[in-house]
Design goal:
With 248 residues, the protein is mainly alpha-helical. The chain has a single domain (3-235), classed as Glycerol uptake facilitator protein (Up-down Bundle). The chain has 11 helices and no strands. The protein has helices spanning 3-37, 48-68, 70-75, 81-89, 98-120, 122-126, 140-162, 171-190, 196-206, 212-239, 243-247. Helix 1 packs antiparallel against helix 2 and helix 9 packs antiparallel against helix 10 (212-239).
């Protein structure tokens, strides 16, 4: 097999992994909403702050587990269009792989949401397929800024860890914990989507499109900006003379 054919085969395989991983992510997330948020469920948590705290812990563990899994290690375990955009804008991910990964993640979002609906039936439809929505009175600009700033903070933490080779194995844990903290702290305000793949499938299948474009665009703009800043920093460090050359 030629190098180009092997490269295409790897991209197809890795995109398939992203589809499968995102399908699992959305199936579990929608299932959590079905069991924890549906009135009358045996596991219902009535207090919204407690609900989002529990959901944040569960999603943090899930994301880390999926990223550390063999398919996650093979594909990079993006599970999030923003991760793909961040790595691309940092100069660490090939441009030709961006659209296949994004398509796989969004398709996985639909598949995972639909699978949860097929498994749990009417209760999933009663919770709107887990579609996210902000608190009443939250404006579009406010939602965009909060979601974007929260995700930017997560990616700044990721960039800091990436800068230390000895810590790079902790990146899945850092992303999982970061997302979990955002869900726990901002869930009652913004719905804490912070992932276009989290918003896409539920919005498509439920027909609930309130603030849809905010949920799709803010989690792409923030990682792109952090990635560009990270790339500029890497370029600056690479161009800086080493102490040995400076002495010479």
């Amino acid at each position: 097999m030629s190098n180009s054919a092997q490269s295409r085969a790897d991209l197809v395989r890795h995109s398939a992994y992203e589809f499968a991983l995102t399908t699992v992510l959305l199936f579990v997330v929608v299932s959590l909403v079905r069991w924890l948020a549906l009135p009358g469920s045996s596991l219902t948590i009535g207090n919204p702050h407690t609900l989002f705290a529990v959901a944040g812990i569960a999603v943090a563990a899930l994301i880390a587990a999926l990223m550390y899994s063999p398919p996650g290690r093979a594909s990079g375990g993006h599970l999030h269009p923003g991760v793909t955009v961040f790595l691309w804008s940092s100069g660490l991910f090939p441009a030709r792989a961006v659209l296949p990964y994004l398509a796989a993640q969004l398709a996985g979002s639909v598949a995972g949401t639909a699978l949860a609906g097929a498994v749990w039936g009417e209760p999933v439809r009663q919770v709107g397929y887990g579609a996210v929505a902000p608190a009443p009175g939250t404006g579009a600009v406010e939602l965009f800024l909060i979601e974007g700033a929260a995700l930017a903070a997560v990616f700044v933490a990721v960039a800091l860890v990436m800068a230390r080779p000895a810590l790079r194995g902790l990146i899945p844990a850092v992303i999982g914990i970061g997302v979990g903290v955002v869900i726990a702290t901002l869930g009652t305000v913004t719905g804490a989507s912070i992932n276009p793949a989290r918003a896409f499938g539920p919005a498509l299948l439920s027909g609930h499109h309130e603030h849809f474009w905010n949920y799709m665009i803010a989690p792409l703009v923030a990682p792109a900006l952090v990635g560009l800043a990270h790339r500029a920093l890497l370029t600056r460090r690479a161009a800086a003379p080493s102490p040995a050359s400076a002495e010479a």
